[in-house]
User: Fold these one by one.
Assistant:
Number 1:
Amino acid sequence: MSDFERIMLEKEIEVDILEANRLEDENPVTPVRLTPEDSFCFVCRRESSCWNKCCHGADITLTPYDILRLSRRMNVRSADFLIQFTVPAIWDKADLPVAKLRMTGEDGKGACPFMTEEGCSVYEDRPATCRYYPLGLASVKMKGAEDKDEFYFLVKETHCEGHNVEGADHLVSEFRTDQGIDPYEAVNQGWIDILMKMASWKTVGGPFGQDISAQTQKMFFMVSTDVDALRRFVFETKFLQSYEINEESVENLREDDEALLKLGFDWMKHVLFDDPTINLKERVLQEAIVKARQDMGVA
Ligand code: SF4
Ligand code: SF4
């Protein structure tokens, strides 16, 4: 068991991972944990007087799969999507660099660039946070438990009339399915694990977040936001000479963006936490051991 896992077992740590904070409510979160079997009352209707209000001034952290889906929809490279539609930010719960959706207006409180009178113009490819809304996703590590536990919470903003409609009850699990969340989580899970671990480590005062090198931050940002750059990194550097990846998977990675992202998350877990999610080739490992011994002055 690693130092990280030992510390985590001794603490109960809760981290909100995906939550669309709008700017006008200080604390709209209802402090009740919801499981997939719980129900909540909500419906979003075109005729509501609050129509589109939630798409103004929204603080939306884009997940890797959000950026992939939106770039594909617009038929642009991830790098061009980033320049046009995002602002770089630090996800301060973990001191990790992320991309946020750029709202219009000089103060960033204007409309989302994808909002139209009729609603969301990228609805089929809208970000995970928009799909969850008005739910948020959090992860908790209970004292003594080995695995993390995920749960949901309700975000009730004063402007949103969707909570006041009688009879509009949903199970959380049904809402997730209706909103098409599963394919997003299937790709993003490794990335969410990294955010959770880094945020949890920061909570207990561990070294990550302060000691993480600028180079590692840069690599995390690349893995999180730019699948084209990640592909160049895998195929045009010594990456494939250094790590054990079978030939069939290598061929698949040339075309399969989702598989490439998952490899990127596995690699970051290995770099950040020394997780055995990806293995160095034996020769590279031996060379690293020899070098480490030399650096320490051990024969
Ligand atoms: S992506 Fe769509 S749903 Fe999300 S804030 Fe923008 S317009 Fe609203
Ligand atoms: S009901 Fe809530 S989610 Fe729907 S448009 Fe109004 S503010 Fe947005």
Number 2:
Amino acid sequence: MGPLPGANTTTGEHPALDAMHSALDVKPHCEAPERLSAFLKVLEEARGKRVLIVIKGHPDPDSIATAMAQRHFGYFFDIESLIVYFDEISHPENRALVKTIDAQLHQYREDMDLSGFDFMCFVDTPTPTLPIHLDNPPPALSLVDHHKAVGGFETRFTDVREDVGATASIYSEYLEHSKLGLRPGNKNDAKLATALMHGIRADTDDFMLAGPTDFRAAAYLRSFLNADLLRIISKQSITARTMEIIQRGLNNKVIKGTFLFAGVGFVRDEDRDGIAQTADFLLRHEGIETVVVYGIVNGEVVDGSLRTNSPTVDPDAWLKTLFGANAAGQHYGGGRRNKGGFRIPLGLFARCQDRDALWAIGKKTIEDLFFEKIGVEKDKAASG
Ligand SMILES: [Mn+2]
């Protein structure tokens, strides 16, 4: 196919100039050409700088892959990138991913000097703020995400698309339509392609929830990825302790209509992902459209996961109205199209030595809120 009228073409007469221009070129047929060229432009502005790529929350396949993709783009602009994360990589599958794919992520430590960076790039998160306090945080260069847009912040470049299943799909689109895309036969690019494909699969429930952008991204990634590597990293392993949490979820489930609620009691910090895995599992229960699983993690917070197939439940709005916000205006919960989560600090109550009493209070409070929300009283709810 020849170049479209108006498409950028290089003449070859000025190789240096051509090389410079081509880094900023956007290929024809791009879904969002103005966004891609704005993205490349801010990278050009950050040429030669030090950039901190920030993963917020527990690193998952989508955030890991997109942090790597952001770093990939940085290479072409001589940007020195460091990927940092703050919360443990709790899911065994994600630990395998990081190792197999050689993601080179750095867990935040207090002796790290983050103020030495010129910019920050945020991936797969709706707000460009660090989870730690810095007196003078570096300015946010970019934020690329697919969660519910919250706005009210400043970045040089923002691309938030709520209708896309994974942030990895957006970065794949950048790769496909820029001149800085994946190179056939390049081993690092194969790892990146594999990580991105895994990210899309993970966030779209293996394409069950994928949209056009996700499918186009997968079609692009297909020829670059390493199929053996993909097989290794997507092999699901469920730890014995997660099995135990799933079992508690099954024992304690309460079903009302198409809703299923399950409190799983106390969960260790390193097992917190078991709550989400339990929610995923229980959503397969016949006749159930929405699942909420919660537990007390690390004795400090009530942590919960929502999963839904319901066309009428919007996880983000549902959890935000249910739990509201703290004094600083931060919501206790939120989500995207088919899933959400919440985290409510127990504060002073965490000091309670009587764990049974603490669990009883937590469970009662949360259940009452849920049942009120779905319009039933707790005592009328059938126990499953
Ligand atoms: Mn994501």
